Automatic annotation (TrEMBL):
Taxonomic superkingdom: Bacteria
Protein name: TIGR02679 family protein
InterPro entries (alphabetical): CHP02679 (IPR013495), CHP02679_N (IPR024466), DUF2399 (IPR024465)
Coiled-coil regions listed in the entry: none
Domain spans labelled DUF2399: 271-420
Domain (Conserved hypothetical protein CHP02679 N terminus): residue spans on this chain: 48-254
Length: 422
């Protein structure tokens, strides 16, 4: 006789069970495999009908099944039992008048449907992301980041459980609410003050991973990997892991300290650390500051013009935390920033990163300047790497794609030095 089980976890008429008789029929440890198969079907809300088989049964397992079903021993490599028949035996014997489902529940405990488990888990995960709702007041950058965090798998990979995820996100939101830190502060000191644990934002912790992701959204810092990238990413939000390693190269800036003025008087380049810039930023800002990508330009300017050269800042590649700190300071104090970089895809990416962080105007860094330089450089090397856009000049990326050559700053050095002439 076939049957459909009651919904797992619901009452099954336990008062009508004959537990002694049920134990003799179905409680043999050799039938544990059968009970497990029935529980699995109940969890999946499948009918308790049809055959179930066990490959390679022991003699005890075969004998227990034959006793349950009251049939003669059979040979073979597998043991097959029809659940309909077991249900009929339990009902007719009076051991379980409500059938197989009630018997298995009595012997092994309540069964919860997998659909219920999945529904509860989905609800728990949805609630785990509730701390992100507090970011709505912090601007569209973090709102968009939070939406991506909900849809992606980062939080689940890092936390594994909804409870751990909720704690992780609550801590991350508490940190992001305090960023960017102004003035800049030591990362361990910030963690101790914000979370009560100086090591809470140490490298490779789940919280550091999530917070760094949020910092990228908050500050526009580019994606990357490695210890140096992490140090610069933290610093972009005013959190200093190492205030001495991040530096920027300058020429003829004044007002930060007597040593800086002395270097400007002698026309010598200066290397300013992030520590210096956060403690002793320049007290004044020139009306115009030119910015280049490569140190060759700054060195040549120092050699050619010395102390008469207008103020110049060199990024030396991707803008460091020190460079961003300095340029933001100069911009906020009224300086106009003029930027030049390499005419290649990497150069455009560096320039775009800088533009996303601090406003600047192009310094011989437009499509017209690129075309003129390319025409004057017949042996220019070919472009490599994936293309990108140039937000400051809608025609520049198209010109690079069309001509397909690299024009490095060193190639147009004489033009740059002419602009820097006193």
């Amino acid at each position: 006789m076939g049957m459909s089980p009651p919904r797992p976890g619901s009452p099954v008429g336990g008062d009508r069970l004959d537990l002694d008789r049920l134990g003799r029929l179905l409680g043999d440890p050799a039938l544990a495999w059968l009970l497990e198969r029935v529980r699995r079907r109940m969890e999946r809300e499948e009918p308790l009908t049809g055959p179930v088989s066990l490959t390679g049964p022991t003699q005890a397992q075969r004998a227990a099944a034959e006793r349950l079903l009251g049939r003669a021993p059979r040979a073979g490599r597998s043991l097959t039992v029809r659940l309909d028949t077991v249900d009929d035996v339990l009902r007719r014997s009076g051991a379980a008048p409500d059938g197989l489902a009630s018997a298995v529940t009595a012997l092994t405990g309540p069964v919860t449907a997998l659909s219920d488990i999945r529904e509860r888990e989905a609800r728990a995960w949805q609630e785990a992301y509730a701390p992100l709702d507090a970011l709505d007041a912090l601007g569209p950058e973090l709102v968009g980041w939070a939406a991506g965090l909900r849809q992606g798998g980062l939080v689940r990979r890092l936390s594994r459980t909804p409870r751990a995820a909720r704690t992780l996100l609550a801590d991350a939101v508490a940190v992001l609410h305090r960023l960017p830190a102004e003035p800049a502060v030591s990362l361990p000191a910030f963690a101790a003050r914000s979370l009560g644990n100086a090591h809470a934002l140490d490298d490779q912790t789940p919280l550091a991973t999530v917070v760094l992701s949020g910092i990228r959204a908050l500050t526009g810092f580019p994606d990357g990997t490695g210890a140096e990238w992490r140090r610069e990413a933290w610093a972009s939000a005013g959190l200093l892991k190492d205030a001495l390693s991040s530096s920027v190269l300058t020429l003829n800036l004044r007002g930060g300290a007597p040593a800086l003025d002395w270097l400007a008087d002698t026309g010598e380049p200066a290397v300013l650390t992030l520590r210096h810039l956060t403690r002793h930023p320049p007290r004044t800002a020139p009306a115009t500051v030119r910015v280049c990508e490569n140190p060759t330009v700054l060195a040549a300017a120092a050699d050619t013009h010395g102390s008469a050269c207008p103020p110049l800042v060199c990024l030396q590649g991707q803008p460091s935390a020190a460079a961003l700190t300095l340029l933001r300071h100069l911009h906020s104090h009224g300086a106009t920033l003029l930027y030049h970089g390499d005419f290649d895809w990497g150069g455009l990416r560096i320039a775009t990163t800088l533009l996303n962080r601090v406003p600047w105007r192009p310094w011989r860094y437009t499509a017209a300047h690129y075309r003129a330089a390319a025409a004057a450089t017949p042996l220019a090397p070919p472009l490599t790497g994936p293309p990108t856009k140039a937000p400051w000049d809608a025609d520049l990326a198209g010109a690079l794609s069309e001509l397909g050559v690299r024009i490095e700053e060193e190639t147009v050095l004489e033009d740059l030095l002419t602009d820097l002439a006193p």
